[in-house]
Amino acid sequence: MNEKAFEVFVSLSLLLGGLLTLVFRRRRNVLIGFRIGYTWHSERVWEKVNTFAGVFSIAYSLILFVLALYGISMNVFILIMVAFVVSEVLLGFWMARREYELEELSKEAPEKPPTAGESEVKNELGETSVKSYLLLQLGFLTFYLLLVALLWDRLPERVASHFNARGEPDSYSSRFWGMVGVPILAWLLPLVLTIPAKEPGFFARVTFYPKSLRAWCGFTTLLSGGMVFVFTLALLYNAGLLPSNAITYGAILFLGVILFAVYRLLTVRPDERI
Q: Are residues 39 and 138 in the same domain?
């Protein structure tokens, strides 16, 4: 699959997701929709937030589709996609919390998510907080940027920024954009997904959803570390310190670890420490 076909596939997948979200905006379910604690506890909040998420997803997926047909580079495509997805998550979470709080002011909201000071959250967290996971993710990025600084003079002006399934570079970009800009933007995604976890209303109360804050933060932190690991391999390749097939092996290892992390995320018990 070439770059253009991949970009079109991603755009259409996001479009389908947006359409399904819009279709199911009036019926809470465990598979489709913007599912966090606030939306799960209120029919009105569910409908309002998922209407926004559906329309927003459809809009930016169409923009991405047009850009893909135009032949935009993979790096720019991913940058724009990440910006849209992060914006959707942050705006959706803000809207859900705001609408739930407004509903609470007008009447006693049913099944209010526990506040950060309640014993349920304290028992789950123990001595661990979201802050420790955020610091660990920041440590990953700091390590990577220090390595970039050490190897900067060994990097060519145009670096390989994307590799095919055989580990061969098939896309190039400027040294700064490929080795600094793209990695930082990718690193921001798990960070943004970790920050709202300190708010108990972030978690949906459905049977298969992770009820452990540790599970969610562990997953996003592992995702962050895996991304930094893959970008580090690309950095070492561009500096002439690794063969290209190391990228393939690293990507396979990363995907395997993430699949295992997803399994743990969906099967962890509410009281389990991971």
A: no
